[in-house]
Each structure stands twice: as C-alpha cells, then as structure tokens.
Amino acid sequence: MKRSFLIALVLILTFVFIGCTREDTTERIRLATTTSTDDSGLLEELLPIFEKESDYNVEVIAVGTGQALEIGRRGDVDLLLVHALELEHEFVAQGYGTERFPVMYNDFVIVGPDDDPADIKEESNLGDSLKAVYQAGLAGDATFASRGDDSGTHAKEINLWSEYEIDREGDWYKSLGQGMGDTLITANEMQSYTLADRGTYLSMKDYLPNLAILVEGDQELFNPYGIIPINPDQHDVNYERAEKLVEFFVRSDIQEQIGEFGKDKFGQPLFFPDAD
Fold this sequence. Notes:
The chain has two domains: about 1-105 and about 225-275, 3-Layer(aba) Sandwich (D-Maltodextrin-Binding Protein, domain 2), CATH 3.40.190; about 105-220, D-Maltodextrin-Binding Protein, domain 2, CATH 3.40.190. By secondary structure, the protein is of the alpha/beta class. It is built from twelve helices and ten strands.
C-alpha cells in the first residue's frame, strides 16, 4: 500500500516536472490586439507563417484598443497591434513602448439598415450624416449602436460626435460594451446604424443581411494600424521575440500578403500595407 502510494507520487511529480519544463521552454510571444483585427481573419492567415518560420508561439489577446494599451502599460504582453494613432504616440512618449511601426490601414464606414430611415446615403458630408442619424433618433425613427468599449473604433466615434457638436444622450443611442463583431451582429438584429472598420464589416457581411455601407470615403474615416513593442526598461518582456514579430509584419512579402488579403472573397482588400 505504502509502495503504491510512493509510485503514484513519483509519477505525479514527474508529470508536473515535464509540464513545467515544457511551459518554461515554450518560445511564446504575447500580442495584444484589437477585436477588429482578430475578427477580420488576417492574423489567422499570417501568424501560422511566422510561427513556422520562427518556432515561436504567438498568444493573441483580442480586446479593445483602450484595454490593449492598458495591458501594455502593465507589461502583461510583449507588444501591441492597435489602431488609435494619437493614443499610440502618447503610449510611446510615456515610455511604455519603444517605437510605433506603421503596419497597415483601412477605413471606417457607417453602416445601417437598407431602408436608411435617416436618409444618410444621399448625404455628401460626414457631419450632416451624423446629424441626420441624431435627428432620426430623436424622432424615434432610428437607433445608433456604439461599441462603448474604450476601443479605437469607439474613441473615433466619440471624437466624431464631439467634433460635430452632436449630443449623444437619449434612448436612440445604445452603448453596448461589446467588440466590433458583436456590435455588428447587434446592429443587424436591431437594424441600427453603427461605425465599423471596413475590414470587419466585409469579413462578416454574409452574416449581416440587414446592414449596408451607407457612408464611406471621408478623409476623417482613415484608420491606420501600428505595432508597438513594450519597453523592456519598464517591464520584463520578451523584447527580442517582439522585435522578430515586428520585422515579420513590416517585411515586404508579408506587406504584399496584407494587401491581397480579402481580395479573392470580397473583390477588394480588407487592409492596405503601410510599412515605411
């Protein structure tokens, strides 16, 4: 009985040791990125290439840009891939990141129900379109679904309402606290207007029969993405591995692949390469 117990204990300790050894030797990189980047499917296409070339494993944490930046400030990841240009420059200036590297861009679009109760499809001005949604909302004819999650998209949306001095108060404005994919699904169900990045909308279009792009092309809807390694002087991070992933994303062949992503399915790319 005693011998059996000792044998079982030795086996348990052996498995624990093996498990710890495997975990310690894992070449892991922790990447915090946005839900819009993750929802588009781009990382599912690119990261396996990097992992095969490098033997590193990339752990992706998909959250809103605000949350990603906060995770980076705590040093809980090795690098960020986000889209909130001013906040990214601030992050680097404060010493949390070493440098921001441009990777790609797409644009924001306003999507809404096909019957377009606010009649924004015919508007040529972005501000007039938002004011029309507001007026239709006050009249009880329309609603707007906001991500409400402190993401880059949410920050852009709030900036637009503020720039055009539009009050968001009222039942017409729905703050969801959800990622881009979930917000689009909710907007589709509610037949609401919402601000989305083009890449996520196109990647989910087959599941959004009630939504269509109604406003696009305005210069203010430009949406750049940057990658930022966390500063090793601030936190104990895998900086050399993070650099390898940065080099991968800005490499010419990967930049070309970014520019091709989505063309075969949507007839247009979801992102455009933007590395220097």
